[in-house]
Design a protein that fits this description.
Layout lengths: L1 H23 L15 H5 L6 H9 L3 H5 L4 E6 L1 H5 L5 H5 L5 H9 L2 E2 L5 H10 L4 E4 L5 E7 L2 E5 L5 E11 L2 E6 L8
Parallel strand pairs: 1-7
Antiparallel strand pairs: 1-2, 3-4, 4-5, 5-6, 6-7
Length: 185
Amino acid sequence: MFTSAIRLVATASVLAASAFVAHAENPMVGGAPMYAEKNIVENAVNSKDHTTLVAAVKAAGLVKTLEGKGPFTVFAPTNAAFGALPAGTVDTLLKPENKDKLAKVLTCHVVAADAMSATIAEMIKKDGGEHDVKTVGGCVLKAREDGGKLMLTDETGGTATVTIADVKQSNGVIHVIDKVLLPKS
């Protein structure tokens, strides 16, 4: 009986440790765990660092799309990235009359593929140090590595750094970035 109890406790401990390791594969984002079995929207709404992005996705009418099958790679700007835009930019973009412009900005952060950072790094290497990334919004981002960090340059010359890579989702992957990527005017 005592041996059975020890086996039961040992088995429970192994299962609990396995669950922790499986969960630990995805990094925390905005103080919240990110679950690989949830979609992009289901995870993003829990990140305290992405409340502006979530509000923008809702205002642009892109929730259903980003909840869809995918696969998608989303370069997700933080609240601080949105806050670094010129004063009033976010408020202006969130107005209903600017829905199309907001959707354009947001879809310039989305690629119709499941591209983990190692895959992007390999494409950069194969292309001689810089790889063109075509977004669903029609923008072309320039991906490169600098000091072991993945960098993205938008069509206006602004550069974002991936600060948290490879956040797996049920319909793709999120890479957190520190700047809003903008389409050319």
